[in-house]
Design a protein that fits this description.
Layout lengths: L3 E6 L7 H15 L3 E6 L28 H10 L2 E7 L7 H9 L1 H4 L11 E7 L5 H18 L2 E8 L12 H12 L3
Parallel strand pairs: 1-2, 1-3, 3-4, 4-5
Helix pairs in contact: 1-6
Length: about 190
Amino acid sequence: MNKKICILNGSPRSNGNTKALIADFIKGAEAAGNETVCFDLQKMNIHGCLGCCGGGKDAASPCVQKDDMEKVYPVYKDADVIVLASPMYYWGISGQLKCAFDRLFAVAELTANYENPKKDCILLMAAEGDSESNFAPVRAFYEGLVSHLGWNNLGIIYAGGNMEAGDVLKKPEQLEKAGALGRSIV
């Protein structure tokens, strides 16, 4: 059975290292028979969460704000797998990804106990640093997020040593890891 995969690309670079990881991941995932939809969040009109807890009244449009999250919600709700893709910014995910992810709370508001839909999840991250300690803050955030949501981690790709756009293209082993992770989804 094929899986539906929703990719949230938090990179502001349209042809950066994160996008290259995503491209190889998509090739692998689609070769395994899965469907992918990638949202380039930088190009979308998405406002920050208001913290109003006023969403969840309309399943078709769960948030009180009406912006490009309206495109993300149906794909997110229907997806089996969520891919969080981001460059590392100050030892965390990008603001673009955090902003969009915060807005997914409106979907949890559709249930009486604010239950998030159960998903499988993947993290793809490009970074300048390439050490265990460099990735530790992101690992802690991601593992905490997945644990609190009750999601299942399918894998993490940390592609370190990539500062300039296109650096990851000189490291085919990093791209192959992303492709292999995509192919592993069955």
